[in-house]
Design brief:
This protein is of the alpha/beta class and 386 residues long. Helix content is 39%, strand content 16%. It binds pyridoxal-5'-phosphate.
Length: 386
C-alpha cells in the first residue's frame, strides 16, 4: 500500500482531475447539461445527485472537483458544497427536523444556528433543546433525538468541548453527531477521526481564505449524508461553480496560511495578556486557558480567531478603541488574510435587560500581517481606555 500523503502534499494534488494541459481545472458554468441520447439522459437521473452533471442545481465538473477535494481533505466518503456556511447548518439541522423529532444543540453555537433552531425549526414541529455540559447531553437525550449538533470551540466564548465524549454518548443512543468545524479548518481539526458523523464548514472563512466569497461544505459517509443530500436537492441550496473554483484556489495555500495564523494569533494573544486594559484573553491555545488540555488533544494547531475581555470602561472609551484601530477592520466574518475586530455579544448576554458588559467582549481575527505591527496598532487603540 502506498503511504498516505501528507496534507501539504494532498493540497497540491486534489481537485485537479478534470485539468488536462492547464495546471488548474477549467471553470465550468452551466444550468443545462446536454445528453447525447435519451438513455444517457435517463441514466443521469439514476446516478447520485451532486456527483455527475445533470442540471446546474446539482453542480458542474467544477463543483465536483471542489467537493472531491474537501472529502479527501477531511478523510470522508463524500462532500456536498452549498451556498454558505449557514446553508450547511440549515441543511443538516433541517434534514433532521421533522414534526415530533428532537434535536440537541450545543448551547454556545454560532448565533445564527440558535436563531435558526428557535425561529424556523421549532415552528416546523421539531423539539430543539440546548445542552452546555456532557451531563446535560446525557440527561436530555430521548428516544426521539435525531441529531446532536456541536461546534468547537464555541462561537465568541471559545470554550472547548470533548468531541470524542460527545460522540460516544450520542452513538450509544444511536444518534449521529454533526459538528461545525470551521474554526480549526481541515488542517488543524480532524472531526471524523474523533467520531463526528457530519462535519460542516463555513468555507467562506479559511478554506477560501480571501474574504471574497460565501460557501459551505458538509462531509460524511454517503449513508449519513443521504437525508442532507435530499434536503439540499429539494431546497436548491447549491454552490455556484465560480465560487467553488475560487475556493479550490484558496485551498492550495491552506496548509501554509494556517500555521501563520496560529503563530501570529499566539504572539498577539500573549502580548494582550500583559496589557492592563485587558482583563482576559479567551483562546484555547494559551497555556492557562481552561480549554487548553482539550485543545491540545483534539487540535494540531489554532486558528487566528479569539476573544478578549476588556477591563471595565465607558461606552465612549470602548468606541474610541475600535475607531482608533487602523490595521484591524471593524467587521464580521474571519478567515481571510486581514485582521478584524468586532464587539461580541454571546447569546447568554442577549437576554439580559441591562447589559453592563455589552461591547466589552471583543472578537479579534489575527490575519497575516506582522504580529508586531498588529500589537502596535492595538497598543495605540488601547491607550484610549484608561
Ligand atoms: C461564519 C460562520 C458560519 C456561517 O457561515 P457563512 O458562510 O457566513 O454563512 C457558521 N459557523 C461559524 C462558526 C461561523 O463562524
Amino acid at each position: 500500500m502506498k503511504p498516505a500523503l501528507k496534507q501539504e502534499t494532498l493540497l497540491t494534488q486534489i481537485g485537479r482531475a478534470s485539468a488536462t494541459q492547464s495546471v488548474n481545472p477549467p471553470l465550468v458554468r452551466a444550468s443545462t447539461t446536454l445528453f447525447r441520447t435519451l438513455a444517457d439522459f435517463k441514466h443521469s437521473y439514476e446516478t447520485m445527485v451532486f456527483e455527475s452533471p445533470q442540471y446546474g442545481r446539482s453542480g458542474t465538473a467544477t463543483t465536483f472537483e471542489f467537493q472531491n477535494a474537501m472529502a479527501q481533505l477531511e478523510g470522508a466518503e463524500c462532500c456536498i458544497a452549498v451556498s454558505s456556511g449557514l446553508t450547511a447548518i440549515a441543511a443538516v439541522l433541517g434534514a433532521h427536523a421533522r414534526p415530533g423529532s428532537h434535536l440537541l444543540v450545543y448551547d454556545a453555537v454560532y448565533g445564527r444556528t440558535r436563531v435558526l433552531c428557535e425561529k424556523e425549526l421549532r415552528p416546523l414541529g421539531a423539539t430543539v433543546d440546548f445542552f452546555a455540559t456532557l451531563d446535560e447531553l446525557r440527561a436530555r437525550l430521548t428516544p426521539a433525538t435525531a441529531l446532536v449538533f456541536i461546534e468547537v470551540p464555541s462561537s465568541l466564548t471559545m470554550a472547548m468541548l470533548d468531541v470524542e465524549a460527545v460522540c460516544a454518548i450520542a452513538h450509544a443512543h444511536g444518534v449521529p453527531v454533526a459538528c461545525d468545524s470551521t474554526w480549526g479548518s481541515p488542517v488543524f481539526f480532524r472531526p471524523h477521526a474523533l467520531g463526528v458523523d457530519i462535519s460542516l464548514h463555513s468555507a467562506t472563512k479559511y478554506i477560501s481564505g480571501h474574504s471574497d466569497l460565501m460557501l459551505g461544505t458538509l462531509t460524511g459517509t454517503y449513508e449519513k449524508l443521504e437525508v442532507v443530500r435530499t434536503w439540499c436537492d429539494r431546497y436548491g441550496s447549491h454552490a455556484a461553480p465560480d465560487v467553488c473554483w475560487l475556493a479550490l484556489r484558496g485551498l492550495r495555500t491552506l496548509a501554509v496560511r494556517m500555521p501563520r495564523h496560529h503563530a501570529n494569533a499566539l504572539a498577539v494573544a500573549h502580548w494582550l495578556q500583559r496589557q492592563p486594559q485587558v482583563r482576559r484573553v479567551l483562546f484555547p491555545a494559551l497555556e492557562d486557558d481552561p480549554g487548553h488540555a482539550l485543545w491540545q488533544r483534539q487540535f494540531s494547531g489554532a486558528s487566528g480567531l479569539f476573544a478578549i475581555e476588556l477591563a471595565r470602561c465607558s461606552e465612549d472609551a470602548c468606541e474610541r478603541f475600535y475607531d482608533a484601530l487602523t490595521l484591524f477592520g471593524i467587521g464580521t466574518s474571519w478567515g481571510g488574510f486581514e485582521s478584524l475586530a468586532m464587539p461580541a455579544i454571546p447569546h447568554h448576554l442577549r437576554g439580559l435587560k441591562v447589559q453592563p458588559d455589552d461591547g466589552r467582549l471583543v472578537r479579534l481575527h489575527i490575519g497575516l500581517a506582522d504580529p508586531g505591527d498588529l500589537c502596535d496598532d492595538l497598543a495605540q487603540a488601547l491607550a484610549h481606555i484608561r
